[in-house]
Design a protein that fits this description.
The protein is mainly alpha-helical. The chain is about 65% helix and about 5% strand. Belongs to the CYRI family.
Amino acid sequence: MRRGRGGVGGRPPFVRAPAARLLKGEEAEPWSLSDLFNVTKLTGGTRAESPALAEDAQPTESEKEIYNQVNVVLKDAEGILEDLQSYRGAGHEIREAIQHPADEKLQEKAWGAVVPLVGKLKKFYEFSQRLEAALRGLLGALTSTPYSPTQHLEREQALAKQFAEILHFTLRFDELKMTNPAIQNDFSYYRRTLSRMRINNVPAEGENEVNNELANRMSLFYAEATPMLKTLSDATTKFVSENKNLPIENTTDCLSTMASVCRVMLETPEYRSRFTNEETVSFCLRVMVGVIILYDHVHPVGAFAKTSKIDMKGCIKVLKDQPPNSVEGLLNALRYTTKHLNDETTSKQIKSMLQ
């Protein structure tokens, strides 16, 4: 995984700056990307300093164990995206085999093309399980007592940065998967062919790679429009249900704070103008959408209700202000992978903004 000034894979950092005035539309003092960036969020009528993530955030001694575990996973993230981006599928070989079912050479050629691709799909799926475990570790660290979510984000910026990087990866993965129908076509052909081989008692090279139980789980994973987001949403929901001793606000306030940080940086011209490349914008947009979706799955009434601590109108407006072709995938993620968008409590204005 590449690391540079922009973070993982050239990604931009979160930064921190005084933004109590940002939310009021007043001027703030000059800042640079390496400055600390404090976003003030109004919660429950009181001001709470909400940090974002410093570019050079280093783990403290208490963070190191979780940080190192998560870092091992994140080091493989860029390679997974590169493999997915270069995934071309075996569409031609499969079509030839289906059109000429009696031609054994074509059947063998299609099977030989599909088996290594299924190996890649297995790797992607197994990475989703590793990512889920990493997310749960971060949630445990960022929501534990006795500190508030805001205090956690202030104290453990390195972990908060990793949380953002996981969300950024997740949205990028799902954007690539949604535009690649070859993935499900290849896997469906693999399963059909494997089943036929079993019936005919034909030894199947590659069956040891993906047994029937694993194939069932992979099939469910790839059937999702946004499989990585679904994995993380389910993991967050499970984390909350398994930790009933933790107030749910510990989790939802952490998510809503990160959404506010992204929105403020993107909607404020003075701060937006300092972004040196579009990857900074893409990073913030993906993290914002990711935390909204997790919040919507975890919070009892979701992200779209009037009582939500996320300014959904502001977040959607930020998305709509981008070039349409650059955010359609993110808008679709809000349309189709959130839980409460179509609830009666969601305002008509918000629904119409996402139509």
